Amino acid sequence: MYISIYIFRINKANVEEHLSIEREAARIYMEHGAIFNDAYRASRLTGKHGCVGFADAIDVGEDEEMLVSLTGFKDQSHHDKTMNKVNSDPKIRELFARAKKVVALDRTAYGEFELIK
Fold it and tell me: How many CB atoms neighbour CB 26 within 10 A?
């Protein structure tokens, strides 16, 4: 399993538009082969069990919400092939243009992770 993770800090006024974009993008990702594409809204960002909370590790403003998007693939090769198709889809380019109006990309964290067995 291979996943890509986005951690967004979205102005509260833009959350619903961002979620609308996420839902449309998820359909595109799935059409082109992603195993799953899910968005999550933070419900607890404080530390627990001696761990630092996300709120301590990532600055989330009073006027922001933290949202996380996870997209799953079979492996890195499947990710790369799927993402080539996704990025070639004209619909995703339209969504990206909309997203840039509601998401500060320079405040968005991204990473790709491979399952450890």
Answer: 17
Whether the model clears a pTM of 0.85, i.e. scores above it, the answer is yes
Whole-angstrom CA distances from 89 to 17, 69, 70, 93 are 21, 19, 20, 7
DSSP state of 91: H
35 pLDDT band, cuts 50/70/90, is very high
CA angle 108, 13, 58 (to 5 degrees): 30
- Helix/strand/coil for 89: coil
Question: What does residue 61 show for φ and ψ, rounded to 5 degrees?
Answer: -70, 160
Beta strand 64-73 with 2-11 is antiparallel
Quick: pLDDT tens for 51-109. Answer: 998 888 888 889 999 999 999 999 999 999 999 999 999 999 999 999 999 998 888 99
Tokens standing for 11? 């102005």
Q: What is the DSSP string of 3-48?
A: EEEEEEEEEGGGHHHHHHHHHHHHHHHHHTT-SEEEEEE-S--S--
